[in-house]
Structures are given as structure tokens and as C-alpha cells.
Write a structure and sequence with these properties.
heterodimer; A: 275 residues; MetI-like fold; 76% helix; 0% strand; disordered N terminus; B: 230 residues; Rossmann fold; ABC transporter ATPase like fold; 2 domains; 7 helices; 10 strands; binds adenosine-5'-diphosphate; binds magnesium ion; MetI-like (chain A); Sulfonate transport system permease protein (chain A)
Chain lengths: 275, 230
């Protein structure tokens, strides 16, 4: 028995080598490798003159342009306008979507009245509403914030409502046996139970908000990052367009990270499962 | 349909139907205050149906009869049924205002002092079921309904839970209706053992020391349709 249990020593030279099929160890900071490689190619192509700056500016031009735009204050002004639009749209769309989901999830009448229209709205891309909203509200801030709010409302509603509907009926039964009041039931069972769904909706909502913002700013607008980029297009300034793209990318990245942070904070009871 | 009494728990002519089939069919049952009753029955015999009727959880089921239970009824389910997003203490005092102190005491009684801030899924199955017991106790029930509360636990944990339940029962003295499919569990814990069959109480044994437990065990198994070779 002891012989069987003992590990064959490597010096016997008869150890069957293990066939490794998994990809192996992760490359340290591997996720940076691809982007850095692309950046290197881009720089090399620009430096050798092979890449026409009218087609794509050199990386260092983009950096200096960004610095110039920041020094003149144009970048900050436009950025602030864009962020304000998204923040307002989210501030209106998120509570509205969550409230509608609650009403629709907690009462059959509410569901009958609310769910249909939102499912129909879901089938229509929010951007397709823009012509109508422009006619109603003009091309000003109200229109832009409205498109964002309406677009954000849908994913918040869908995922929160789904979260509500999938709360385990056993918890409802428990709430009945301990005689929870309606208010306590909503606070202790419904809201925490729907929170994971709501947060998932929030991630979609944030992405949607930036997407709509880009379009709203590229069409009829006189301020914002999108406007800055569209103006640059008419002058053929690819460096300014690239600065705008980087800013949009960073904004999307940061807001997604913020939602994920909120998710980790509020769903800490779940982390114990994952870890 | 349920009326509240301070004392006797009385069920008369209880009928419950799923479709055309009467799961409970004119069942009569009385439980004295502070009495520990175990309910045995084959799987599907209607044990849970009876317990849900006593708990008032079956508005949606067809049937008739009268059920008189005390005001304070607590239920322990087979799964601990703790809200995963609420900490242990919050689960215990769920729906009770300003009951933190009593909640702590009840947790200490079930041997979980110091785990107040834990999340339910950080606890073992046995510990979760003890939290569920604490949640029932903190409400000072006159009737404790338990539907196979130890069914999902391993044998060793189950034995420990038996001792705990019996001790808690002796301290707080609620009437208990414990649904189980385990004859030995019923004998170990209860003052009286009922067997559910054909929608009624088909057999009844009192454990007052008069008859030997071996004999009672054999009779209960026979009533359950198991021919025991002892
Ligand atoms: N919600 C339900 N709908 C239809 N039939 C049910 C329902 N609940 C229980 N039954 C049936 O009633 C019978 C008794 O169920 P139950 O009381 O759960 O049995 P036990 O707890 O004794 O195993 C079973 O045949 C079961 O299939
Ligand atoms: Mg059952």
C-alpha cells in the first residue's frame, strides 16, 4: 500500500508527462499587451510618414491637441455640458423606470396598464423617437435630456421588473407567516430582492445614456463633446475627433466602474458566495 | 376561516381538495396547550397540506371545515428560509420593531451568540435551521408548526437539533406540531404521535411510558404500511 501511495520519483525517468490542455498561466498585465501593440504600430506608421495625418493624426499630435483644448478651456466646457446631459437624463430616467417597475410588479392592475406600453417602447429604438421629440421640444437641452431619460427608463424598468417577478415565492410565504406589513414587506423583501435586477438594468442604462448622448450631440447641437467632434469633422481635424473618442471611452469606462462598485457595495451578501 | 383561541387547538371536519382529489377528508384533530405532537405519514399523504391549513397559508386551496388556532403561530419550514440579503439578527427579528435585544437572546439560546452580523449563506445548514428556530421563538408562539425541519440535515446534526428543539420546547412550552417522515424522530421528541392516512388521522400513539417504545415503533410502522421485521 505504501508503495502505491508514494509518488514516483522524477529520477526514475519513467514518469508519464502530463499533457497540459489549459492555456496555462496568465501573462502579467496581459490585457495591456494588445492595446500597446496597436499603439506602437500606430506610432510607427505615423513616424515613418506612411500614415497620412489627414486620415489619422499621430498619437503625439492627439496628446498635444488634448493639452491645447484643455488649456483653452474648450475641452472642459464641452465635457461638462455632456456630463450634465447624461446626469440629468439618468436622474430622471432611473427613478421613473424603477417606480414604474415597482407599481407594475406589485399590482396586477399596474402591470396590465404599464407593462404593455413599455414592451412596445422597448421594440422602438429610443433614437427613432428623436424626430418626434425635436418637433415637440425643439433642439435644445430639454429634447436631449428627454431622449436620454426615455432611453434609460426602459432597461431599468425591464430588469427591475424581472428582478421583482423572480423573487422566490417562498420568501413571500415567509413574509405572510411572520405577518409583515405591506410597507415592511416592500422594504425587507421586495426592494432587496429586486436590487440585483435593478443594478443590472443600471449598467445597461449607463451604456445607453452615453450612446444616445453621442447621437444627440452629433446631430443638431452647439455644445458638448459630440459637437466638438462634429465641428472637427468639417475642418478635417482628426486629432480633435480622436480626443473626443478617447473622452467618450473614458466616460463609459468610469461610469461602468462606478456601477460595478455600487454593485459590490450593495450586494455584499452575495460576495461570500463568489469568493 | 381560522378563529383564535388562547388554549386548545381544534380542527374539525377539515377537507382540502386539489382538483377532484381530497387530500384531507373530514380530518379532526385536537392539540392541548403545551403539547408536543408529531405527525407521521407517507410522502404525499397530506402532512404539509394540513400544516399549511393550520398556518393559514392555503387561501387558494378548495375545501371546508373549521380550524381554531391561537393568535401567535410560528412556522419552521424544511428549508431554513432565511432572507439571503439580511444579516442573521435581522432575519430573526424580521417584522418585529425594537426586538433586537430579545433577538440576541434567542440566538444565544440556539447556540449562535456572536453570529448576529453573519450573512445566512455563511452558515452551515444546521446553523441556518437554528436561526429559523430563533426566528420562531422570538415571536413567543403558542403554537409552533414545523414541516420536516430537519429533513435536509445530516444524521449527526439532526440528533443535536432534536436535543435543542426538545430543550427549547421545555423552556417555552408552546404547543408543537412537528411533521416528519421519521418514526424514530417522532418517538424521540413527541408526547403524542399521529399517523395521517386516507385524509384523516389514521392512528394515534401516546408516549406516556406505558408501552415500550419498541412496541410503539412497530405499531406506527404498521400504520404507515411498513411491515417491520424486528
Ligand atoms: N399546490 C398543489 N397543487 C396540486 N396538488 C398538490 C399541491 N400541493 C400538494 N398537492 C398534492 O397533495 C398531496 C399531498 O401533498 P402534501 O401535503 O405536500 O404531502 P406530504 O407533505 O404529506 O408529503 C400530494 O399528492 C400532492 O401532489
Ligand atoms: Mg410535505
Amino acid at each position: 500500500m505504501t508503495l502505491l501511495a508514494a509518488r514516483p520519483s522524477a529520477t526514475t525517468g519513467r514518469v508519464r508527462p502530463r499533457r497540459r490542455l489549459a492555456p496555462g498561466r496568465p501573462v502579467p498585465s496581459g490585457f495591456l499587451l494588445g492595446p500597446l501593440l496597436l499603439l506602437g504600430l500606430w506610432a510607427a506608421a505615423s513616424a515613418s510618414g506612411w500614415l497620412d495625418p489627414r486620415f489619422l493624426s499621430a498619437p503625439w499630435t492627439v496628446v498635444t491637441t488634448a493639452v491645447e483644448l484643455a488649456e483653452s478651456g474648450r475641452l472642459q466646457d464641452n465635457l461638462l455640458t455632456s456630463v450634465e446631459r447624461v446626469a440629468l437624463g439618468l436622474a430622471i430616467g432611473i427613478p421613473a423606470g424603477a417606480a414604474l417597475a415597482l407599481v407594475s410588479g406589485l399590482s396586477r392592475w399596474g402591470e396590465a396598464v404599464i407593462d404593455g406600453p413599455i414592451q412596445i417602447k422597448r421594440a422602438i429604438p429610443s433614437l427613432a423617437l428623436m424626430p418626434l421629440l425635436v418637433l415637440w421640444l425643439g433642439i435644445g437641452e430639454v429634447m436631449k435630456v428627454s431622449v436620454i431619460a426615455v432611453g434609460v427608463l426602459v432597461p431599468i424598468y425591464i430588469h427591475t421588473h424581472n428582478g421583482l417577478r423572480t423573487i422566490d415565492s417562498r420568501y413571500v410565504e415567509l413574509a405572510e407567516t411572520v405577518r409583515l406589513s405591506r410597507a415592511a414587506f416592500i422594504r425587507r423583501v421586495v426592494l432587496p430582492g429586486a436590487l440585483p435586477g435593478f443594478l443590472l438594468g443600471l449598467r445597461f442604462a449607463v451604456t445607453t445614456a452615453w450612446l444616445i448622448l453621442v447621437v444627440a450631440e452629433l446631430i443638431n447641437s452647439t455644445s458638448g463633446i459630440g459637437y466638438m467632434m462634429d465641428l472637427a469633422r468639417t475642418y478635417g481635424q482628426t486629432d480633435v475627433i480622436l480626443v473626443g473618442l478617447v473622452v467618450y471611452g473614458l466616460l463609459g469606462l468610469f461610469s461602468d466602474a462606478a456601477v460595478r462598485l455600487a454593485e459590490r457595495r450593495t450586494l455584499s451578501w452575495r460576495r461570500t458566495l463568489a469568493s | 376561516m381560522a378563529t383564535h383561541t388562547g388554549e386548545l387547538i381544534r380542527v374539525q371536519g377539515l377537507t382540502r381538495r386539489y382538483g377532484a382529489r381530497a387530500v384531507l377528508d373530514g380530518l379532526d384533530l385536537e392539540i392541548a396547550p403545551g403539547e408536543f405532537v408529531a405527525l407521521l405519514g407517507q410522502s404525499g399523504s397530506g402532512k404539509s397540506t394540513l400544516l399549511r391549513a393550520l398556518a393559514g397559508l392555503d387561501d387558494d386551496v378548495a375545501g371546508g371545515g373549521t380550524v381554531a388556532v391561537p393568535e401567535q403561530v410560528s412556522v419552521v419550514f424544511q428549508d431554513a428560509r432565511l432572507l439571503p440579503w439580511a444579516r442573521v439578527l435581522d432575519n430573526v427579528v424580521l417584522g418585529l420593531p425594537r426586538a433586537e435585544q430579545r433577538g440576541r437572546e434567542c440566538l444565544a439560546e440556539v447556540g449562535l451568540a456572536g453570529r448576529e452580523r453573519a450573512w445566512p449563506n455563511e452558515l452551515s445548514g444546521g446553523e441556518q435551521q437554528r436561526v429559523a428556530l430563533a426566528r420562531s421563538l422570538v415571536r413567543e408562539p403558542s403554537l409552533l408548526l414545523a414541516d420536516e425541519p430537519f429533513g435536509a440535515l445530516d444524521a449527526l446534526t439532526r440528533l443535536r437539533m432534536h436535543a435543542l428543539l426538545r430543550r427549547l420546547f421545555e423552556q417555552h412550552r408552546p404547543a408543537v406540531l412537528l411533521v416528519t417522515h421519521d418514526v424514530d424522530e417522532a418517538i424521540a421528541l413527541a408526547d403524542r404521535v399521529l399517523v395521517l392516512g386516507d385524509g384523516r388521522i389514521a392512528a394515534e400513539k401516546r408516549l406516556d411510558g406505558g408501552t415500550s417504545t419498541t412496541e410503539i415503533r412497530a405499531e406506527l410502522l404498521r400504520a404507515l404500511g411498513v411491515t417491520a421485521d424486528l
